[in-house]
Amino acid sequence: xxxxxxxxxxxxxxxxxxxxxxxxxxxxxxxxxxxxxxxxxxxxxxxxxxxxxxxxxxxxxxxxxxxxxxxxxxxxxxxxxxxxxxxxxxxxxxxxxxxxxxxxxxxxxxxxxxxxxxxxxxxxxxxxxxxxxxxxxxxxxxxxxxxxxxxxxxxxxxxxxxxxxxxxxxxxxxxxxxxxxxxxxxxxxxxxxxxxxxxxxxxxxxxxxxxxxxxxxxxxxxxxxxxxxxxxxxxxxxxxxxxxxxxxxxxxxxxxxxxxxxxxxxxxxxxxxxxxxxxxxxxxxxxxxxxxxxxxxxxxxxxxxxxxxxxxxxxxxxxxxxxxxxxxxxxxxxxxxxxxxxxxxxxxxxxxxxxxxxxxxxxxxxxxxxxxxxxxxxxxxxxxxxxxxxxxxxxxxxxxxxxxxxxxxxxxxxxxxxxxxxxxxxxxxxxxxxxxxxxxxxxxxxxxxxxxxxxxxxxxxxxxxxxxxxxxxxxxxxxxxxxxxxxxxxxxxxxxxxxxxxxxxxxxxxxxxxxxxxxxxxxxxxxxxxxxxxxxxxxxxxxxxxxxxxxxxxxxxxxxxxxxxxxxxxxxxxxxxxxxxxxxxxxxxxxxxxxxxxxxxxxxxxxxxxxxxxxxxxxxxxxxxxxxxxxxxxxxxxxxxxxxxxxxxxxxxxxxxxxxxxxxxxxxxxxxxxxxxxxxxxxxxxxxxxxxxxxxxxxxxxxxxxxxxxxxxxxxxxxxxxxxxxxxxxxxxxxxxxxxxxxxxxxxxxxxxxxxxxxxxxxxxxxxxxxxxxxxxxxxxxxxxxxxxxxxxxxxxxxxxxxxxxxxxxxxxxxxxxxxxxxxxxxxxxxxxxxxxxxxxxxxxxxxxxxxxxxxxxxxxxxxxxxxxxxxxxxxxxxxxxxxxxxxxxxxxxxxxxxxxxxxxxxxxxxxxxxxxxxxxxxxxxxxxxxxxxxxxxxxxxxxxxxxxxxxxxxxxxx
Length: 959
Known about the structure:
This protein is α+β, with helices and mostly antiparallel strands. Among the domains are: 28-200 and 230-308 and 426-573, no CATH class; 317-404, no CATH class; 801-959, Spore Coat Polysaccharide Biosynthesis Protein SpsA, Chain A. Helices cover 51% and strands 12% of the residues. The protein has 29 helices and 21 strands. The strands form 6 sheets. A 10-stranded mixed β-sheet has the order 14-15-16-11-10-17-20-19-21-18, with helices on both faces. A 3-stranded antiparallel β-sheet has the order 5-6-7, with no helix packed on it. Strand 3 and strand 4 (353-354) form a beta hairpin. Helix 4 (135-141) runs antiparallel to helix 12 (453-478). The longest helix is centred in the N-terminal third of the chain and has 40 residues, at 20-59. It is elongated.
């Protein structure tokens, strides 16, 4: 025997098998994704909270110019309204492009009242409460917005079935509710605004050049400021509790699981919550506009009037007149370090009151030289030795004073980085908050969809408050009074000495009562039950987020009972179809069932092996899932039942004696199935048991029992008994699998309903497309009960060609898209051409452009226009709908029919689904490989069919 004869080619299937290096790379990439999402959510949450507190602290600066206060006011209003704008656009898009229920007048009243209360609470918290607190106390108050959720969780949530656990849960819920309510007593009985008693960022050293009378008169101004502080403390006592209570009311829906029953009194709060969720899309169009208007109105009512005047004031040095310079006042004089900020009024040399124009703490004469006018009415200072700035003036009509802005730069001096920072710096917190809040919401939502909730959602949002608090304490220890970014304009106000008993007690109370109770109230985020790639409506009760409380809004808004939500959606779906909800005793089959349907004609052995290997892989995967479920009681959300059907076109030829005989391609199939089994199972020379043969009216049927226990049925079509071509093979498996197996179970009900409709046509209420010239017939959903309807919605047909190669993971990706939305009628995969030669190179580029650009764009815009028949998944209930399967099975009566139906059957079927209201989506993660034409003749014949049908279908859709 020659040396090389002992070496055999391995028949093992290498599909989906990777090296150790690739597996480790995947694990490393997965760990990196966890780290990126964890760090992203944490960093963006901390940045959002810090930047928002910076804006509220700057708004609370009582010593700043009114144009600066106006800027902070408008930026906070814009910050609050940004999510409302997104909410309006999202609600408008859903209402325009999806079928949604609309609210009635009473629903609008209820929604508007609740949103008004919440908006008032947010505005009161942002414009009055937080600006009156230092940064640490303001951060702690943000954890006390769970009063209403805590009460609903205590009284209206479903209890645990075990008595001991029910008692412990009730006790902890009561403690959490008491801890949240403690904020109402603590803020009223303790000095939460004690830091206001010290001047905010000002130096109170008097200037001897002005005179001793200025120092004595400043005491009166300080006394007036103290009176204002007392008013703020008194007002804070009721504003903080009211704001926290009103803010918490918006999250009541997530914590109400049942109706309120008090004796014979029954308040259907849980039922009404379900009703609100069904009409929320259209109601949010008006609610978002209403909240924007209320935010603007409340900000105007809660803030001083001058906060909205002279928002953009500029300094014009050319308009300064009547200036006399006294060189006796030089850069080294004590007046040069005079502070113009801490007093509410300034005084001239004679002790007369002068209106304050600029209160920034800054050298009066930074460039050397300067002075006081002879009439003692105006103090002037040189800027850069040339320009002068008016600091105090008793002339209210002086245009130079009214237009003064210390951010302006003289025209003869080049702007520096510091100048740009002073000009644009106040807008930086708003920009940081806008992007950090939006990215935090996006990363959090994506983490929940990808089932990374514990690590990348719950942990970082739980740590957001402690991390922010630690950063603030560290910075305040470094800068004892303020963390100044722009002097007297943008800073964090620190508390009194952190070693004092009062602030220490406030921190301990805030963390032990409010923060820990918030963790218990939002403990459901640690036990997610959502499916993979769940929709945002499934993950969160309310759309969008709250920009002022990003951490709390995400935690409290994350849906608690997702299986109950899915059940409610299905019951509402049945109600919309005019069906009674199913009883608890009725068992509903919610398992996914996949019919793999392939069409063969004159494929070669190598091409047949591809589809048979794919079927074998599906058989192995389904068998493993079935054994894990049956033997180890594993709950597999991706479990499915499978059955494969292959339709062989023109499977017979007739000899001279008209004897029917299997053609050569069917004989090749017998050889290919054994080779495919040996390759996939890695057993050389493996042979399956002989198939069961059955004669049928259309030709014959061969049935194999695959090694995994699933069924493979090969339907042999005789062209003399049944129409050939792919469309008629598709019609055969649609009518057999859907019409016979599903609708055939309720034949008697169909007959009775048909008689009722014929006798009383007005009783037929649920069909969406009905023309008066049509014959009356029963809409298929009218005859399906809940059990069969759910079975049809969870039954999918995987349409494949005879030369396609795919794996179970690709099918799982397609079914994930189907499970997300019942209105998805089909899902398209990403097709890769295989072969060799220059023509294959061109087609690879063409396919890449088609799928990566065209189908991705169509999917992003709302709906893919064509699901390619070589590898696509269809929903059974969508195919059974009116004007889909029946129209698809109609015979061609004109050249136009032949062009649309026979030359482009997959595109024609997609057109019928779209016209019936279903969407077609694209899943780029589902890869399939198919043989592409390698010769110009085959390529020309393929495009001769594709191009006319594509143009014809496009024109038909436009009509």
